[in-house]
Design a protein that fits this description.
The structure is a single chain. The chain has 296 residues and is of the alpha/beta class. The protein has a single domain, classed as Rossmann fold (3-Layer(aba) Sandwich), CATH 3.40.50.720. Helix content is 43%, strand content 14%. The chain is built from 12 helices and 9 strands. The strands form 2 sheets. It has a 7-stranded parallel beta sheet, with helices on both faces. A two-stranded parallel ribbon has the order 7-9. Strand 4, helix 4 and strand 5 form a beta-alpha-beta unit. Helix 1 crosses helix 6. The longest helix has 16 residues. The termini are far apart.
Protein backbone atom coordinates (compact mmCIF):
# COMPACT_ATOMS: atom_id res chain seq x y z
CA UNK A 1 0.00 0.00 0.00
CA UNK A 2 1.30 3.42 -1.03
CA UNK A 3 0.60 6.63 0.89
CA UNK A 4 0.68 9.74 -1.30
CA UNK A 5 1.30 12.90 0.69
CA UNK A 6 0.89 16.24 -1.05
CA UNK A 7 -1.87 14.50 -2.99
CA UNK A 8 -3.59 17.71 -4.11
CA UNK A 9 -0.35 19.38 -5.22
CA UNK A 10 1.05 19.78 -8.72
CA UNK A 11 2.97 16.50 -8.62
CA UNK A 12 0.85 14.58 -6.11
CA UNK A 13 -2.32 15.17 -8.11
CA UNK A 14 -0.74 13.65 -11.20
CA UNK A 15 0.59 10.76 -9.12
CA UNK A 16 -2.88 9.99 -7.74
CA UNK A 17 -4.29 9.89 -11.28
CA UNK A 18 -1.48 7.67 -12.54
CA UNK A 19 -1.73 5.21 -9.65
CA UNK A 20 -5.49 5.01 -10.19
CA UNK A 21 -4.92 4.23 -13.86
CA UNK A 22 -2.46 1.47 -12.91
CA UNK A 23 -4.86 -0.07 -10.40
CA UNK A 24 -2.22 0.28 -7.68
CA UNK A 25 -3.16 0.00 -4.01
CA UNK A 26 -2.76 3.46 -2.49
CA UNK A 27 -4.38 6.13 -0.39
CA UNK A 28 -3.93 9.88 -0.41
CA UNK A 29 -3.23 12.06 2.60
CA UNK A 30 -5.42 15.18 2.69
CA UNK A 31 -6.12 17.82 5.30
CA UNK A 32 -9.90 17.85 4.89
CA UNK A 33 -12.53 15.42 3.70
CA UNK A 34 -13.81 17.72 0.97
CA UNK A 35 -10.49 17.55 -0.84
CA UNK A 36 -10.37 13.81 -0.30
CA UNK A 37 -13.82 13.31 -1.76
CA UNK A 38 -12.84 15.40 -4.80
CA UNK A 39 -9.92 13.07 -5.55
CA UNK A 40 -12.19 10.10 -6.21
CA UNK A 41 -9.65 7.81 -4.56
CA UNK A 42 -9.07 6.25 -1.12
CA UNK A 43 -7.76 8.81 1.34
CA UNK A 44 -6.85 9.45 4.95
CA UNK A 45 -7.33 12.77 6.72
CA UNK A 46 -4.20 14.05 8.40
CA UNK A 47 -1.87 16.98 8.89
CA UNK A 48 1.92 17.19 8.64
CA UNK A 49 1.95 19.10 11.92
CA UNK A 50 -0.09 16.41 13.74
CA UNK A 51 2.02 13.28 14.37
CA UNK A 52 -0.96 11.30 15.67
CA UNK A 53 -2.87 11.80 12.41
CA UNK A 54 0.20 10.76 10.43
CA UNK A 55 0.53 7.59 12.50
CA UNK A 56 -3.09 6.72 11.76
CA UNK A 57 -2.63 7.39 8.05
CA UNK A 58 0.33 4.97 7.92
CA UNK A 59 -1.83 1.95 8.80
CA UNK A 60 -1.19 -0.77 6.23
CA UNK A 61 1.33 1.38 4.32
CA UNK A 62 4.74 0.14 3.19
CA UNK A 63 5.73 2.87 0.70
CA UNK A 64 5.37 6.65 0.93
CA UNK A 65 5.56 9.51 -1.53
CA UNK A 66 6.76 12.50 0.50
CA UNK A 67 5.82 15.95 -0.77
CA UNK A 68 4.69 18.72 1.53
CA UNK A 69 3.50 22.29 1.09
CA UNK A 70 6.70 24.29 0.67
CA UNK A 71 5.84 27.05 3.17
CA UNK A 72 9.13 28.67 2.29
CA UNK A 73 7.78 32.20 2.49
CA UNK A 74 8.27 32.40 6.23
CA UNK A 75 10.30 31.01 9.12
CA UNK A 76 9.20 29.67 12.52
CA UNK A 77 11.90 29.83 15.19
CA UNK A 78 14.43 30.32 12.43
CA UNK A 79 13.40 27.19 10.51
CA UNK A 80 11.22 26.51 7.50
CA UNK A 81 8.11 24.63 8.73
CA UNK A 82 8.56 22.14 5.88
CA UNK A 83 11.59 20.67 7.62
CA UNK A 84 9.65 19.79 10.78
CA UNK A 85 6.62 18.59 8.82
CA UNK A 86 8.57 16.20 6.63
CA UNK A 87 10.53 14.88 9.59
CA UNK A 88 7.18 14.08 11.21
CA UNK A 89 6.21 12.01 8.17
CA UNK A 90 9.54 10.18 8.18
CA UNK A 91 9.20 9.39 11.91
CA UNK A 92 5.65 8.09 11.40
CA UNK A 93 6.77 5.99 8.42
CA UNK A 94 9.62 4.43 10.38
CA UNK A 95 7.36 3.64 13.34
CA UNK A 96 4.83 1.99 11.00
CA UNK A 97 7.39 -0.27 9.34
CA UNK A 98 7.36 1.49 5.97
CA UNK A 99 10.06 0.14 3.64
CA UNK A 100 10.60 2.87 1.06
CA UNK A 101 10.13 6.65 0.91
CA UNK A 102 10.27 8.54 -2.39
CA UNK A 103 10.91 12.17 -1.53
CA UNK A 104 10.20 15.10 -3.81
CA UNK A 105 13.22 17.33 -3.27
CA UNK A 106 15.02 19.98 -5.33
CA UNK A 107 18.11 20.20 -7.48
CA UNK A 108 21.21 21.13 -5.44
CA UNK A 109 19.57 20.22 -2.11
CA UNK A 110 22.20 20.49 0.60
CA UNK A 111 22.51 21.36 4.26
CA UNK A 112 23.22 25.05 4.62
CA UNK A 113 21.95 25.89 1.12
CA UNK A 114 19.60 28.81 0.52
CA UNK A 115 15.86 28.54 0.97
CA UNK A 116 14.42 25.35 -0.53
CA UNK A 117 17.86 23.90 -1.25
CA UNK A 118 18.75 24.14 2.43
CA UNK A 119 15.35 22.98 3.68
CA UNK A 120 15.25 19.95 1.44
CA UNK A 121 18.90 19.26 2.17
CA UNK A 122 18.12 19.01 5.88
CA UNK A 123 15.20 16.63 5.23
CA UNK A 124 17.24 14.51 2.81
CA UNK A 125 19.91 14.04 5.49
CA UNK A 126 17.28 13.10 8.07
CA UNK A 127 15.70 10.55 5.71
CA UNK A 128 19.07 8.99 4.87
CA UNK A 129 19.84 8.60 8.57
CA UNK A 130 16.42 7.09 9.34
CA UNK A 131 17.30 3.57 8.22
CA UNK A 132 14.47 3.59 5.65
CA UNK A 133 15.12 2.92 2.00
CA UNK A 134 14.87 6.18 0.12
CA UNK A 135 14.86 7.79 -3.31
CA UNK A 136 15.28 11.54 -3.88
CA UNK A 137 13.72 13.17 -6.93
CA UNK A 138 15.43 16.50 -7.56
CA UNK A 139 13.78 18.74 -10.17
CA UNK A 140 15.21 22.16 -10.89
CA UNK A 141 12.24 24.16 -12.14
CA UNK A 142 8.59 23.32 -12.76
CA UNK A 143 6.80 24.08 -16.00
CA UNK A 144 3.70 24.44 -13.79
CA UNK A 145 5.12 27.74 -12.53
CA UNK A 146 4.06 29.20 -15.89
CA UNK A 147 0.46 27.99 -15.85
CA UNK A 148 -0.78 31.31 -14.49
CA UNK A 149 0.80 34.77 -14.39
CA UNK A 150 0.52 34.85 -10.59
CA UNK A 151 2.65 31.71 -10.14
CA UNK A 152 5.65 33.18 -11.95
CA UNK A 153 7.49 36.37 -11.12
CA UNK A 154 6.15 39.11 -13.37
CA UNK A 155 5.37 42.79 -13.71
CA UNK A 156 2.03 44.56 -13.70
CA UNK A 157 1.61 43.92 -17.44
CA UNK A 158 2.07 40.15 -17.15
CA UNK A 159 5.60 40.06 -18.54
CA UNK A 160 8.08 37.61 -17.08
CA UNK A 161 10.80 38.82 -14.76
CA UNK A 162 13.80 36.63 -14.22
CA UNK A 163 17.55 36.53 -13.86
CA UNK A 164 20.09 38.52 -15.76
CA UNK A 165 21.97 36.35 -18.20
CA UNK A 166 18.88 34.46 -19.46
CA UNK A 167 20.71 31.14 -19.38
CA UNK A 168 18.96 27.92 -20.29
CA UNK A 169 16.94 26.04 -17.65
CA UNK A 170 15.88 22.38 -17.88
CA UNK A 171 12.30 22.82 -16.67
CA UNK A 172 10.23 19.66 -16.12
CA UNK A 173 6.49 18.94 -16.19
CA UNK A 174 5.15 17.62 -12.87
CA UNK A 175 3.34 14.98 -14.92
CA UNK A 176 6.72 13.43 -15.68
CA UNK A 177 7.95 13.69 -12.10
CA UNK A 178 4.83 11.78 -11.05
CA UNK A 179 5.44 9.16 -13.73
CA UNK A 180 8.92 8.47 -12.37
CA UNK A 181 7.59 8.39 -8.80
CA UNK A 182 4.93 5.86 -9.85
CA UNK A 183 7.58 3.57 -11.31
CA UNK A 184 9.69 3.82 -8.16
CA UNK A 185 6.78 3.24 -5.80
CA UNK A 186 5.42 0.22 -7.66
CA UNK A 187 8.76 -1.40 -8.46
CA UNK A 188 12.03 -2.27 -6.78
CA UNK A 189 14.48 -0.01 -8.61
CA UNK A 190 16.14 3.26 -7.69
CA UNK A 191 16.54 2.58 -3.99
CA UNK A 192 18.99 4.72 -2.03
CA UNK A 193 19.75 6.97 -4.99
CA UNK A 194 19.16 10.61 -5.89
CA UNK A 195 18.00 11.64 -9.36
CA UNK A 196 18.10 15.07 -10.97
CA UNK A 197 14.93 15.04 -13.05
CA UNK A 198 14.41 17.36 -16.04
CA UNK A 199 12.48 17.82 -19.22
CA UNK A 200 13.99 16.94 -22.62
CA UNK A 201 15.50 20.37 -23.29
CA UNK A 202 16.82 23.48 -21.61
CA UNK A 203 15.10 26.73 -22.58
CA UNK A 204 15.64 30.40 -21.83
CA UNK A 205 13.10 32.73 -20.25
CA UNK A 206 13.05 34.65 -23.52
CA UNK A 207 12.02 31.48 -25.35
CA UNK A 208 9.38 30.72 -22.70
CA UNK A 209 7.98 34.25 -23.04
CA UNK A 210 7.58 33.68 -26.78
CA UNK A 211 5.76 30.39 -26.14
CA UNK A 212 3.51 32.01 -23.54
CA UNK A 213 2.68 34.76 -26.04
CA UNK A 214 1.48 32.12 -28.46
CA UNK A 215 -0.43 30.18 -25.81
CA UNK A 216 -2.10 33.15 -24.12
CA UNK A 217 -2.82 35.00 -27.33
CA UNK A 218 -1.15 38.23 -26.23
CA UNK A 219 2.42 39.50 -26.07
CA UNK A 220 4.44 38.32 -23.07
CA UNK A 221 7.85 39.90 -22.73
CA UNK A 222 10.81 39.09 -20.54
CA UNK A 223 13.07 41.33 -18.51
CA UNK A 224 16.15 40.13 -16.64
CA UNK A 225 16.85 41.91 -13.38
CA UNK A 226 19.79 41.80 -10.93
CA UNK A 227 19.36 39.82 -7.74
CA UNK A 228 19.04 42.90 -5.52
CA UNK A 229 16.11 44.22 -7.59
CA UNK A 230 14.37 40.83 -7.54
CA UNK A 231 14.89 40.65 -3.76
CA UNK A 232 13.27 44.07 -3.32
CA UNK A 233 10.31 42.93 -5.44
CA UNK A 234 9.86 39.84 -3.31
CA UNK A 235 10.01 41.82 -0.08
CA UNK A 236 7.32 44.05 -1.56
CA UNK A 237 5.14 40.93 -1.88
CA UNK A 238 5.58 40.32 1.86
CA UNK A 239 8.30 37.68 1.73
CA UNK A 240 10.63 37.43 4.72
CA UNK A 241 13.73 39.55 4.04
CA UNK A 242 16.23 36.71 4.34
CA UNK A 243 14.13 34.39 2.23
CA UNK A 244 13.72 37.12 -0.39
CA UNK A 245 17.51 37.39 -0.60
CA UNK A 246 17.83 33.61 -0.81
CA UNK A 247 15.24 33.30 -3.58
CA UNK A 248 16.82 36.17 -5.51
CA UNK A 249 20.12 34.31 -5.22
CA UNK A 250 18.46 31.26 -6.76
CA UNK A 251 17.28 33.39 -9.67
CA UNK A 252 20.88 34.54 -10.09
CA UNK A 253 21.93 30.88 -10.20
CA UNK A 254 19.39 30.28 -12.95
CA UNK A 255 20.89 33.13 -14.93
CA UNK A 256 24.36 31.69 -14.46
CA UNK A 257 23.33 28.37 -16.02
CA UNK A 258 23.36 26.23 -12.87
CA UNK A 259 20.15 24.43 -13.91
CA UNK A 260 20.78 23.89 -17.62
CA UNK A 261 21.84 20.23 -17.51
CA UNK A 262 19.38 17.85 -19.18
CA UNK A 263 19.11 14.32 -17.77
CA UNK A 264 17.56 11.10 -19.09
CA UNK A 265 15.90 10.09 -15.80
CA UNK A 266 12.32 10.25 -17.09
CA UNK A 267 13.09 8.16 -20.16
CA UNK A 268 15.20 5.72 -18.13
CA UNK A 269 12.36 4.92 -15.73
CA UNK A 270 9.30 5.31 -17.96
CA UNK A 271 10.60 4.24 -21.37
CA UNK A 272 9.44 7.47 -23.04
CA UNK A 273 10.75 10.98 -23.41
CA UNK A 274 9.40 13.65 -21.05
CA UNK A 275 7.14 16.43 -22.25
CA UNK A 276 8.79 19.49 -23.74
CA UNK A 277 7.31 22.94 -23.10
CA UNK A 278 5.09 22.79 -26.19
CA UNK A 279 3.64 19.43 -25.11
CA UNK A 280 3.13 20.82 -21.61
CA UNK A 281 1.10 23.73 -23.00
CA UNK A 282 -0.94 21.40 -25.20
CA UNK A 283 -1.77 19.29 -22.13
CA UNK A 284 -3.09 22.38 -20.30
CA UNK A 285 -5.48 24.07 -22.74
CA UNK A 286 -7.30 25.91 -19.95
CA UNK A 287 -4.15 27.96 -19.35
CA UNK A 288 -3.34 28.49 -23.02
CA UNK A 289 -6.66 29.23 -24.75
CA UNK A 290 -5.07 30.59 -27.93
CA UNK A 291 -3.55 27.18 -28.65
CA UNK A 292 -6.88 25.48 -27.96
CA UNK A 293 -8.66 27.85 -30.35
CA UNK A 294 -6.14 27.32 -33.15
CA UNK A 295 -6.54 23.53 -32.82
CA UNK A 296 -10.26 23.69 -33.51
Amino acid sequence: MILVTGATGSTGGHLVSQLKARGSAFKALVRDRGKGDALGAPYAVGDFADPASLAAAMAGVDRVFLASPGAQGYLVDGEQPMIRWERNVIDAAKAAGVRHVVKLSVWNARIGGPMSEGGHGAVEAYLKESGLEWTMLQPGGYMQNFLRPETSLGDEDGNLIGPEGDARVAFVDCFDIAAVAAELLTGDTGRNNSYVITGPEAVTYTEIAAKLSEGRGRPVGFRGEPARVIADRLRGYGLDSQLADDLAGQYASLGAGVYEEVTDVVERFTGRKPRDFDAFMAANPQAYPALASSAR
